Amino acid sequence: MARGCIVKRCKVCRREKRNQFEFCNHPERVYGIFYRVGKKSIFRTIGPNKKDAESALEETMRQVKQGTYSELKEILFEEFAQKWINDYATVNVKPSTLRNYRDAIRCHFNPAFGKMALSMIHEPDIRAFIAKTIKNRKPKTVNNFTVMLKTMFKHAKRWGYLRENPAWDIEHIRDEPKEQPDETEDSSNYKSTLPSVSDD
Ligand SMILES: [Zn+2]
Fold first, then answer.
1. CB of 56 within 8 A of CB of 46?
2. How far is the CA of 12 from the centre of ligand 1 (A)?
């Protein structure tokens, strides 16, 4: 029978050899989930939000029950993004595209997702990012971001960091010439230099 619970612990106290589960005032004291798979006890740090811990536990228990559970490698979005640039983009795209990728990650993705665990980024987070970005960027630019995120998450899934691609169902924004948005930055570089994605 699959069981698990939510716990709060502090990595600072742990490092300093105090009881990591006892109350302390460190901001590092965050939620995690604890569960057993077979004979193995697993502890996974989630973050400061209790709801995130609850949904992570629920999802994990569901997978354990269904037999679809496998351990994901943990990584922050910003770490993954750097790895993706190094291991994929640098090798596979032309220099101008690589520059656009780096800019998108530095100026847009990292401020939004950088410190999040990759596996804790879900579709609503991406939709919120898009809703915010479309306020001062052209639909075309935003759509290029969407394509890029789909590609990054597709690779993350293949490389064992994700079970699902959270950007997969994000639709492209229709590019209607209703009103001209204020473009504060030249986005013409993003023109169709991004590859198309298929979810395999
Ligand atoms: Zn502490």
1. yes
2. 5
